[in-house]
Specification:
Rossmann fold, 7-stranded mixed sheet, Quinone Oxidoreductase, Chain A, domain 1, binds NADP nicotinamide-adenine-dinucleotide phosphate, 2 domains
């Protein structure tokens, strides 16, 4: 089978499409024929060798994907060969024609969703759901600002929050991105590069501020976020690419919280609850992942460059 292999940490070109030996599922595992691979920013940090967690070399990147069950290992009763599934974790890596996962990392992909849409679920939708409902404890009728709403996590968060009855504000850096965020259900959309956008957001809340912020770039925004929070507001730090200075007094006057998260910290029961909600949302059509770009698996290097470029537009997917 063909797979992307990383033999050394470095630039996107260290990812090579090569022939590797076939995989066999062990006890409790499934083998999936991968039809679409979700590309996430974290895979670029891991490939570059700058992430806290460094896999042993060589390795195949990738956590997310969607496809069809090919084989099931001993003790797996919940899936059968031929089932459509999405992957939210893989021991062998999903940038490949086939991937191994534990049965608990694999979830049914309801018929309305394409394989490309299934590949957008594992990390982005689970992160958005956990950020909104498990970390921020966002409730219907509250106002959420999705700060960075045009990418994989942001579009997911807008759809999830809108379906739950929140008032949804979103930001994007391009007109195309803002139009996309509006189409996903945001009530109001702002340009995070406009000099006065924080004042515009405050105005949109009649000066009260927002109850919840999902933050995609905390090193740029965290200090500003604290100034547009409502009393008892919560900022969830989802993305961060550097250090930031804040005025802690802004949290004191509001009884505000800054809550960090990384998806792999999610306890198994909470993760199972997230995926049950996501499968239901795919089934009832309230969740419709946006695929901005599809590239052949051999163009993984191009996908890694694209996912870090400004002007996000939904999800980037590789097709083996
Ligand atoms: P993505 O698809 O590349 O989207 C990036 C988003 O950040 C876009 O909406 C982009 O908007 C926005 N952005 C760029 N500059 C911004 C600014 N100055 N202020 C606010 N937003 C800005 O990436 P993703 O998959 O959605 O992930 C978003 C971030 O979360 C990444 O840093 C990723 O590593 C992180 N993440 C963390 C977890 C976790 O467990 N904590 C899980 C998944 C992802 P424009 O391009 O329109 O400017």
């Amino acid at each position: 089978m063909k797979a992307i292999r990383v033999g050394q940490f470095g630039e996107p070109e260290v990812m090579k499409l090569v022939e590797v030996p076939p995989l066999q599922p062990g006890p409790g595992e499934v083998l999936v024929r991968v039809h679409a691979v979700g590309v996430n920013p974290v895979e670029t940090y891991i490939r570059a060798g700058t992430y806290a967690r460094k896999p042993a070399l060589p390795f195949t990147p990738g956590n997310d994907g969607a496809g069809v069950i090919e084989l099931v290992g001993e003790g797996v009763s919940e899936f059968r060969p031929g089932d459509r599934v999405y992957l939210a974790g893989s021991s062998s890596g999903t940038y490949a024609e086939y991937a191994l996962s534990n049965a608990a990392q694999v979830h049914r992909l309801p018929e309305p969703a394409s394989f490309a849409q299934g590949a957008a679920i594992g990390t982005p939708y689970a992160t958005a759901y956990r950020g909104l409902f498990q970390r921020a404890e966002a409730r219907p009728n509250e106002t959420v600002l999705v700060h960075g709403a045009s990418g994989g996590v942001g579009t997911a968060a807008v759809q999830l929050a809108r379906a739950r009855g929140l008032r949804v504000l979103g930001t994007a850096g391009t007109e195309r991105g803002r139009e996309l965020v509006r189409e996903q259900g945001a009530h109001e959309v702002f340009d995070h590069h406009a000099p006065d956008y924080l004042a515009q957001i405050l105005k949109a809340t009649s000066g009260r501020g927002v109850d919840v912020i999902l933050e995609m770039l905390a090193n740029v925004n965290l200090g500003k976020d604290l100034t547009i929070l409502a009393p008892r507001g919560r900022v969830v730090v989802i993305g961060n690419r550097g250090r930031v200075e804040i005025d802690a007094r802004e949290t004191m006057s509001r009884d505000a919280d800054i809550r960090g998260m990384v998806l792999p910290n999610t306890p198994p029961a909470e993760l199972a609850s997230i995926h049950a909600a996501l499968v239901a949302g795919l089934e009832n059509g309230s969740l419709r992942p946006v695929i901005g770009k599809e590239l052949p698996l051999g163009e993984a290097a191009e996908a890694h460059r694209a996912v870090l470029e400004p002007g996000a537009f939904g999800k980037i997917v590789l097709v083996p």
